[in-house]
Amino acid sequence: xxxxxxxxxxxxxxxxxxxxxxxxxxxxxxxxxxxxxxxxxxxxxxxxxxxxxxxxxxxxxxxxxxxxxxxxxxxxxxxxxxxxxxxxxxxxxxxxxxxxxxxxxxxxxxxxxxxxxxxxxxxxxxxxxxxxxxxxxxxxxxxxxxxxxxxxxxxxxxxxxxxxxxxxxxxxxxxxxxxxxxxxxxxxxxxxxxxxxxxxxxxxxxxxxxxxxxxxxxxxxxxxxxxxxxxxxxxxxxxxxxxxxxxxxxxxxxxxxxxxxxxxxxxxxxxxxxxxxxxxxxxxxxxxxxxxxxxxxxxxxxxxxxxxxxxxxxxxxxxxxxxxxxxxxxxxxxxxxxxxxxxxxxxxxxxxxxxxxxxxxxxxxxxxxxxxxxxxxxxxxxxxxxxxxxxxxxxxxxxxxxxx
Length: 404
What we know:
The chain is of the alpha/beta class. It folds into 2 domains: 6-55 and 370-394; 61-356, Metal-dependent hydrolases (TIM Barrel). The protein has 10 helices and 22 strands. The strands form 5 sheets. Strands 6, 9, 10, 11, 12, 13, 14, 15 and 16 form a 9-stranded parallel beta sheet that branches. Strands 3-2-1-4 form a 4-stranded mixed beta sheet, with no helix packed on it. A hairpin with a 2-residue loop joins strand 7 (69-70) and strand 8. The longest helix is centred in the N-terminal third of the chain and has 15 residues, at 110-124.
């Protein structure tokens, strides 16, 4: 088929009230996006093709800010010779609708963390292969966590929260560290949080016993995120609101949530979404472990073993360790459980993580400009209510850039 400009009509875009139309050039690159009600300000180019998306949603790809590994490789175990395995993971995530992610390093020895940071930072410096998810930077989930809320994190590798410890772990790779999860009560002075913010690192509170007062102090010092809300923190209590109560009443804070039905009961998810104003201050994460992309079964996890049953990962003592949940499966779960609209659910996995990273999407249409068609997802809700998605480039009628 000869390449030609394309006009997509009758599309819904998360974050936009009106039905939109989108212009692609002959190479399949987004040129503009505008309301269907807007008068044409140009003559249609010759050989223009028009495709009616019939009210389906069009979104960016998913962004996963908490993913611990895939295809049998845990990110803390990454070594310099694991490039091919990282490439395979990036390809898998792209096939699962994820365009970008922050490999998450759980608590390990400082030597092991440094090795993984070096290897992944070197991988980030290499050109991104076509149709592969992009590494946005590293997420250090630990080791400066509260012992009583460590969950599946090994106790022997927990560290005090000091600038010296953080500096030793990060070395000269601070520019590649995007997020650090920590327990703020371990540093009452706030020196560590202030130092991380000075380095441009996003601070997320998690695996913590912090009171509401301690959490609020951390937010005032620059923390802007909460790691897997409700998990590894005090429960939301009417007399002791704790970290979650402070987070939900602070406009500058966004919380990650896992929508697998195991980490948070759907009723509490609905409560979170209402309190967190939907996709404004919440975002979806997978919290997927190394068995992501593999069948259920028993797998090694550091020096221990985890058992994966129906996508839920547990240690031998029953401790919940994570999931093998695909990020976009969480979107589908939210709609299936009737917790929110498809538009909100889609935004929670695509736009909301970008906002948590500091990206302005007051007009989300601007984020579509100059993107190749391969980076767009088409979502359709059947009469049964089931929500499905596909890469827009899987439509044979559309031009697809060969290099994307």
